[in-house]
Each structure stands twice: as C-alpha cells, then as structure tokens.
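Quick entry between incubations.
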Amino acid sequence: MSTAYTVGLLVAVAGLIIGFMAIVRERDDLHRILLTDLAEVLALVLIALVATDLAEALILPGLVVGISELMAVSEVYIAKEGLQKPHIEPAFHIEVMDSAPGILALILVAYGIVLSGFTGGAVAAVGAVFYFMCRDHAEQFELIETVSGYAWVIWIAAFFIFMFLPQYWLFAVMMAGGAILLKVMAKMSLVGTMRGGSNV
Amino acid sequence: MTPEFILGCVILIIGVIAAGFPRPRTYLSRLICLEIPGLGLLLIMLAYDEMLALVTFIGVTAISTFVLVRVVERRGLE
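Done. Structure below.
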C-alpha cells in the first residue's frame, strides 16, 4: 500500500467524520439535502483513490446515481413542503439573453458529439438542459423516448458484435459510443423540463 | 505523492469544514461552499489521470447546481 493511498484514505475518513457531524447537528431539511451532496463528493474521493481504470468505471455510474437521487429527493422535498414557483418579473430585458442559450447549447452539443460515449452524452445533455431551462419548450417527449429506446438497441447490438464478430471491434465501439451518447443525452435533457411545460 | 494530490487533499478538508459549518448559515452560502470540496476531488482525480471521471464530474456538478438552486429558489433565501 503506497503512502499516497494511506494519506488519501485518512483525509477521506476525516472528511466523512466532519461531514456526518454536520448532518447530525443540522435540523433544517434543505440544509441536509445540501449536505448529502457533500457526502457524495467524499464517497467519490474514496473511489478515486483506487487510481485505476476500475475507479473510473465506478465513478461514472456513481455520478449518475448521485444526480438522479438528488433530483428525486429535491422533488419529494418540494412536494412535501408544497412549495410554489415564485412569480418575479425579470428586472431588465436584453437581447443577448434570447440568443445566447441557442448558441451555447449548440457549442456544448457539438463538443459532446466529438467526445462521444458517456462523457459526450453528459456534456451534450448539459447543453440541452441549459437550452430547455432558458427557453420555453414545447417538445414531444414521446419522440425523445423513442430515440432513447433505439439507442439502447444499438448499444446491445454493438455488444453482440464484440462477442461474435470481434474483428469488427472498431465499428462496434463507434456504434456503442454513439448510442450511449444519445441515451444519456435523452435521459438527462429531461432535467431541463423540470420547470414545467405544456407536454410534461 | 504529487503536488496535485497534496493540494487536493488540503482543499478537500478545507472545503468539507467550510460546507459543513458555513459562516452565514444560509442555503446559498452552503451551496457555494459545496464547490470547494468538489475542486479538491477534481485535483485528486487529476493526480491519478482519471480524465473521463473528471470531465463527467464537471458536467454533473453543473446539473446538480441547477437542481439545488431550483429548490432553494422555491424555498426562498433564508
């Protein structure tokens, strides 16, 4: 066991003790939700200390589970407290606020497609989420779900190519990368619609 | 023990204390303090060359900030 691993483990355990002390002392529910995010970061440190490809493979699903758990808990909290969206008029109106979301979303989605795979899906999804949050949206979500379903089928087909026709591995990697990009993006872009809309 | 790793560990501990016991105890200050341990984690990932995990963590942090700000906005700044 290397020194770095021991030191990192000690730091992570110290952080976990401080973090859980803070959670125990906290009375307000929303503060506790915020501290859950801190606990997630500390858990990811523990995994990152493994420092191999295994760590990377474990961190990616950990992140996705973490974000979906955070969304679910925050939705439950809003429903429990019966909180309403505040109606505040924007203080000023400038033209760039209308045009910027489209351009930024386009850049992020294009970069995500270049990256491809899981990371590309996440980056492209941030672009889509940003666009949906800044603009009103009237998208047909059945279409997104259909695309997501086909992407899953392509992903599985790529795995069959890996198993039965291993000489075409590059083609299968490309298929799997593109499909998982579509899948992650379709799922995560639903986050952007949490403000409500006609089709949700 | 690379410099990134040591710096990451130091920032992580500072960030955990800052996010656990923020000075003005408001939602917003705690949300901002939560970025500090995230930076420590990023430096630790950088020390171990975990590029994919690093990039995805940045993307997911952006979305989780959206989600949390939405709750804080509805709850009211307090």
